[in-house]
């Protein structure tokens, strides 16, 4: 009985952990992608950010954020990049984000 229990315990310990990021850290990842983008900075004409607000998901699965500065208001659309191994199969890890498109300054 002990060998079976030990084998089961070892198998469980060897399984990869599948923990999701909390909502706070996931939105921090999205905000970091936006604020770290030189394209967004240029679209805002290098003006300081006054407001950053999550608007929701679009029909095609993009995440829409609205950014306001003194003279400009624009939308930034992010696409989620799920973690994958080198061969493209799904893997455990955090979701990262890339900028899909930036709306015009209005």
Overall mean pLDDT stands at 85
Multimeric organization: single chain
Whole-Å distance between the termini? 71 Å
Q: What would you call the shape?
A: elongated
Q: Which strands sit side by side, in order, in the main sheet? A: 1-2-3-4
Radius of gyration: 20 Å
Order of helices and strands: HHHEEEE
Give me the number of helical elements: 3
Query: How many β strands by DSSP?
Result: 4
Q: Domains counted in the coordinates: how many?
A: 1
From the structure above, extract its key features:
106 residues; alpha+beta; 4-stranded antiparallel β-sheet; 30% strand
What would you note in describing this structure?
The chain is an alpha+beta fold and 106 residues long. The chain has one domain. The protein has helices at residues 2-14, 23-35, 38-43, and strands at residues 49-57, 63-69, 73-81, 96-102. A 4-stranded antiparallel sheet has the order 1-2-3-4. The radius of gyration is 20 Å and the shape is elongated.
Q: Topology of this protein?
A:
Elements lengths: L1 H13 L8 H13 L2 H6 L5 E9 L5 E7 L3 E9 L14 E7 L4
Antiparallel strand pairs: 1-2, 2-3, 3-4
